[in-house]
Design a protein that fits this description.
By secondary structure, this protein is an alpha/beta fold. The chain has a domain at 2-173 and 202-229 and 294-305: Rossmann fold, CATH 3.40.50.720. 42% of the residues lie in helices and 16% in strands. It starts with a strand and ends with a helix. GO terms for molecular function: aldehyde dehydrogenase (NAD+) activity.
């Protein structure tokens, strides 16, 4: 039997749906307070839901009863500075607990990390799986939590765990709504005025799910894979989204010093309102950086053909426009 952790999230829900469409009866974990995603509601008879937070070892052990494969998609994500240490602690300790249990029970795992945990390449070069984040200089809590969680998986692999790690770029898809990567589309829809010089990778959520399943069903173990469809400049992305939504594209270049002011202003407002800032320091600085990713390793491993980013953009805009 298959277990999916984090199945109430964007990627986890799409992965669970894909597994069901492939005739699998699956078990999914959720927190007691979590809501089952709309895209999984038609498949309730095919899913065994269990309340099991990754921090609750006893509940997690019960959830793993009879399981042979685990897709770990669970993670605590927050931009709030106050959540930095709890996020790192939760993500790392939760992953460590799952790794230990899967090692003991000889359960195969596909662990979802992020390119936030992948290092930088030299200027003009593509970022590959061989690049590693420098934990001594990194300050972003999410990146640190993903890196240290990965290290727990590598520890497990050294101790005999059968596992593969995936590092998706920015995952987009219609089911994201206006949360997560969906905020990009919603911000453009509301009238974004500025663009930055940065470049980053994007990939359709269905392609990430399909790559994870293909890796799980392969004999590959002890490897990490960047999952990326295309590298896009933010300016190009914003213009395409604006065109699909029928709204004006941003015309003004936001220079790095302007982004510095923006994140500080967002942090100030967040401190006053108690809400997560609309922009954090890491995101603001990354928006002006060129990060381009090499997807050749995953293409060789599972022979995937990625959906063009333009197609996914059209799908997302169609849903937002309705």
């Amino acid at each position: 039997m298959i277990l999916v952790t984090g199945a109430t999230g964007f990627l986890g829900a799409e992965l669970a749906k894909e597994l069901i469409l492939r005739k699998n009866h699956i078990r999914c974990t959720k927190r007691v307070s979590s809501t089952i995603p709309k895209i999984l509601m038609p498949y309730t008879s095919k899913i065994e839901w269990v309340d099991a937070d990754l921090m609750d070892e006893a509940a997690l052990e019960d959830a793993l009863d009879g399981i042979t494969q685990v897709y770990n998609c669970a993670a605590f994500v927050s931009l709030k500075q106050a959540d930095k240490e709890p996020m790192i602690r939760t993500n790392v300790r939760g992953t460590a607990t799952l790794v230990d249990l899967c090692t003991q029970k000889r359960i195969r795992m596909v662990h979802t990390s992020s390119v936030a945990a992948v290092g930088e390449a030299k200027p003009g070069e593509l970022i590959t799986e061989n690049h590693h984040l420098d934990s001594s200089t990194e300050t972003d809590g999410y990146a640190i939590s993903k890196l240290e969680s990965e290290m727990e998986v590598w520890r497990g692999i050294a101790e005999g765990l059968d596992a593969v790690i995936v590092n998706p770029t920015i995952i987009i898809g219609a089911s994201a709504g206006t949360a997560g990567s969906g905020q990009i589309f919603e911000t453009v829809r509301k009238g974004l005025k500025f663009y930055t010089r940065g470049t980053i990778g994007f990939v359709d959520v269905h392609d990430v799910a399909k790559c994870m399943i293909a890796l799980m069903e392969s004999s590959i173990s002890g490897e990490r894979y960047i999952i990326n469809a295309e590298n896009r400049a933010y300016k190009q992305l914003f213009e395409e989204i604006a065109g699909c939504l029928g709204v004006p594209a941003p015309k003004t270049l936001a220079k790095p010093w302007m982004m510095e002011l923006a994140w500080r202003g967002a942090a100030f407002m967040g401190a006053i309102t108690g809400k997560a800032p609309a922009l954090d320091k890491t995101s603001a600085r990354a928006a002006s950086v060129t990060r381009e990713f090499d997807n050749s390793k995953i293409k060789k491993a599972v022979e995937v053909e990625f959906k063009p980013v333009s197609e996914t953009i059209k799908e997302v805009c169609q849903v937002l426009g309705n």
